[in-house]
Amino acid sequence: MSQLRVGVIGVGRFGRLHIRVLNQISECVVTSIADVNESLLEEVKEEFKIDKVYTDAFDLIRDPDIDVIDIVSDESSHGPLAIEAIKNGKHVFIEKPIATQYSQALEIERLAKEHNVLVMVGNISRFGQPYASIKRAIDRNALGSVGMIRAKRNFSKDWFDHFGKRVHPVYESGIHDLDLILWYAGNKCKEVYASERNMSGYVYPDLFSAVLTFENGIVASLDSAWLYPKGGPQNLVETLELAGTIDADIEVCGEKGTANFKLAHSGYSLWTDQGVQHPELTLWTTEHDGIGGSIRAELTHFVLQVLKGEESPVAPLHDSVEALRIADAIVLSAKEKRVVSL
Q: What CATH number belongs to 4-117?
């Protein structure tokens, strides 16, 4: 096969970013797209010269001329679409989270083995060099025995006008840090305690805080809030203009040392009459030959693993299943105000 033929489901801003990156990878080509918005479909079809468009994602999945399905639709659709794609023998890339129900995540893992297809979840942070460097430091014992992991992730309040009606923040934002915590802990979580607060009056809470205890004794904390003010400096600029901020920190504390990375303030700033920006330089950077950064590394890695027929050693599917199990426990703990044992 000269090129993998990819069908992309969901062509909003992030879906179009995926198309741009995939079309930079010589081993694959985007041949089909699906979205419920017909006018957007036609616009994207013309922009990227795509052959086939579908308003029904399941019709795209059943197309025999597609090798790979890339799911970039709303979170609640991830599980059902991935399950159907696997049943049709497609390799699947799923933007995080793997699903919003643990039962669906388990089914995806089971079916992937049964149908012998590669499924990888878009845990983009594992492909960012600062995060990967922390992992290498842990693996070579530079920090000694890890005792604690602290993670914080805040988002612009304006964005919650959309997400607050759609998905619990543990699945939308907290899943990034749950994945990193699992990666760094290298062990199973045994206990979860969480609290949350709803300040905006939407279906889902604006913030949550959780403490996780692992079988090897590591204690991890995760705090996430969608309360960053309009006046805060923007860092999602250039490649994907989102008019807001991701303010994320992670710290790993060991007996011999600590490692810390702050996403929001990399040291680079841009001051203009319109305000101050801190352009983010790891996720999806604008580079000399196109889009680079973590998104390009992640999608290139996935395509090459499909061609090799091997599961990703960087982002194995089971880790995403486990992260969703913890996410569900956080929601349950906050709701019932009790410790949840896993």
A: 3.40.50.720
